[in-house]
TrEMBL record:
Key word Zinc-finger present: no
Matching Pfam families: DegT_DnrJ_EryC1 (PF01041)
InterPro entries in alphabetical order: DegT/StrS_aminotransferase, PyrdxlP-dep_Trfase, PyrdxlP-dep_Trfase_major, PyrdxlP-dep_Trfase_small
Key words, A-Z: Pyridoxal phosphate
Top-level division of the source organism's lineage: Bacteria
Record-given protein name: UDP-4-amino-4, 6-dideoxy-N-acetyl-beta-L-altrosami ne transaminase
Keyword DNA repair applies: no
Cofactor: pyridoxal 5'-phosphate
Family: Belongs to the DegT/DnrJ/EryC1 family.
Organism the protein comes from: Actinomadura fulvescens
C-alpha cells in the first residue's frame, strides 16, 4: 500500500540518534537545547519549548495562556480533535467557527461573529500547511483581549508575507509525528516570543518545578531543594528524540523543495480533470505543503476513497469536523454548525505526499484517480 504520508529517515538521522545513545544524556541533556535552538532558526528566532507530542504542545500553549474554567477558545472544526480537546481538558468551552471555502482555514468573519468577552484564545489551524489569515485574525483577538494561537502541526517551514510559521501568532504549536514535515518519532513544540508566556510554557512541561534560588520560597533548604508553585506535567522531549529532530531540521529545506515539486506535478497532471477540485495557495502564502488535499465532487468521495485504496493507493480523509465526534455530541454540539467545513469534509481526499514519494508512484496515484473519475 502506497501511504498518504510517511517519514524520511537517512543515515545522518540514524547517526545523530546513535551519538546520543553512546553519550551520557538520554533526557534533559544538551540535545534538548540544541533542538530548540535549531527549531528557532525556522520560526524567525522565536524561542521554542520542546514537548512530547503535538497534542501536548497544544495543552502547554493553552496552559501558558491561562485557559481555564469560564473561558472560551474559538477554533476551526477542520482539524484533529486535539486542537479542541486540550482546551476542554483545562475547563474551557470550545466555540467552533466556520472555515474559508478555498483553504479550509478559520474564516476571520466567522470567528468574529462568535467572539465574546469570555474568549481567551483564538486558535487558527494551518490546514495542509497553508497559513491561516493571521493579519485579519490578530486585530480581532486583540480587540477582545484574547491571545492568538496557531496550530501549526502542518506548517513548519511555511511563510506568510515573508513571516515564518512560529512568528505569526502569540503562541504556535508544532507536531513532529512521523507523517509531519519533520519528525522526532513522537514530539512537538511551542514557539512563543513573550517572555512571561515562554516561562509558563517551560514550567508547565516540567511539572511546574522551580529550581532558581531567587524564586524559591525556602531558598535555604539545601542544594537539592526544588518547589512546585503551579501544577504542570511531564512533557519533556528526551535527548534521543531531540537529536533526531535536529538532524531532520537540517533536511527541512530539501523536504520543502521536494514537496513543492510534487504539488506542482500533481497540479499539472490533474489539471482539467472533471469532478475534481485542486488545492490553492493565496497571494503571499509560501506553504510547506503537508497534504495534497483535493476535493472529489458530485458525491463520489466515498467511492473514490474505496477504489483508490483497493488499488493500493493509501489516500486519507483529513479530517472529520471535530464537533462530529461523539464526545462533543454528548456535550450538545450539533451537526450543521459550520456548513462550509462540513461541505469541505464531504469532498476532501488527501493524495500521497511525502519527500520520498517517487515520480513513478505519484504517476500511479494520478493514473488511478483519473481512471476512477473518467
Amino acid at each position: 500500500m502506497l501511504p498518504y504520508g510517511r517519514q524520511s529517515i537517512d543515515d545522518t538521522d540514524i547517526a545523530a540518534v546513535t551519538e546520543v545513545l553512546r553519550g551520557d544524556w538520554l533526557t534533559t541533556g544538551p540535545a534538548v537545547a540544541g533542538f530548540e535552538a535549531a527549531l528557532a532558526s525556522w520560526t524567525g528566532g522565536v524561542p521554542c519549548v520542546s514537548v512530547t507530542s503535538g497534542t501536548s504542545a497544544l495543552h502547554v500553549a493553552y496552559a501558558a495562556a491561562g485557559v481555564g474554567p469560564g473561558d472560551e477558545v474559538v477554533t476551526s472544526p477542520m482539524t484533529f480533535v486535539a486542537t479542541a480537546s486540550t482546551a476542554m481538558l483545562l475547563g474551557a468551552r470550545v466555540v467552533f467557527a466556520d472555515v474559508s471555502d478555498d483553504t479550509a482555514n478559520l474564516d476571520p468573519r466567522a470567528a468574529e461573529a462568535v467572539l465574546t468577552p469570555r474568549t481567551k484564545v483564538v486558535t487558527a489551524v494551518d490546514y495542509a500547511g497553508h497559513p491561516a489569515d493571521y493579519a485579519a485574525l490578530r486585530p480581532l483577538a486583540r480587540e477582545h483581549g484574547a491571545l492568538l494561537a496557531a496550530d501549526a502541526a502542518h506548517s513548519l517551514g511555511s511563510r506568510l508575507d515573508g513571516v515564518a510559521s512560529g512568528a505569526l501568532a502569540d503562541l504556535t504549536s508544532f507536531s513532529f509525528f512521523p507523517t509531519k514535515n519533520a519528525t522526532t518519532g513522537e514530539g512537538g513544540a511551542v514557539a512563543v516570543a513573550d517572555p512571561g508566556l515562554l516561562d509558563r510554557a517551560r514550567r508547565f512541561r516540567c511539572h511546574g518545578l522551580v529550581r532558581e534560588a531567587e524564586r524559591l520560597r525556602a531558598p535555604g533548604e539545601g542544594g537539592w531543594h526544588q518547589e512546585v508553585h503551579t501544577f504542570g506535567l511531564n512533557y519533556r522531549l528526551p535527548d534521543v528524540l531531540c537529536a533526531l529532530g535536529t538532524s531532520q531540521l537540517r533536511r527541512l529545506g530539501d523536504f520543502k523543495a521536494r514537496r513543492a515539486r510534487l504539488v506542482a506535478r500533481y497540479n499539472e497532471l490533474l489539471a482539467g480533470v472533471d469532478g475534481l477540485r485542486l488545492p490553492v495557495a493565496r497571494a503571499g502564502a509560501d506553504p510547506m505543503w503537508h497534504l495534497y488535499a483535493v476535493r472529489i465532487l458530485d458525491g463520489r468521495r466515498r467511492e473514490v476513497y474505496d477504489r483508490m485504496r483497493a488499488a493500493g493507493i493509501g489516500v486519507q480523509v483529513n479530517y472529520i469536523p471535530a464537533y462530529w465526534h461523539p464526545v462533543f455530541e454528548d456535550l450538545g454540539y450539533r451537526r450543521g454548525m459550520c456548513p462550509v467545513a462540513e461541505s469541505f469534509y464531504a469532498e476532501q481526499l488527501s493524495l500521497p505526499l511525502f519527500p520520498d514519494l517517487t515520480d513513478a508512484d505519484q504517476d500511479r496515484a494520478v493514473e488511478a484517480l483519473r481512471d476512477i473519475l473518467a
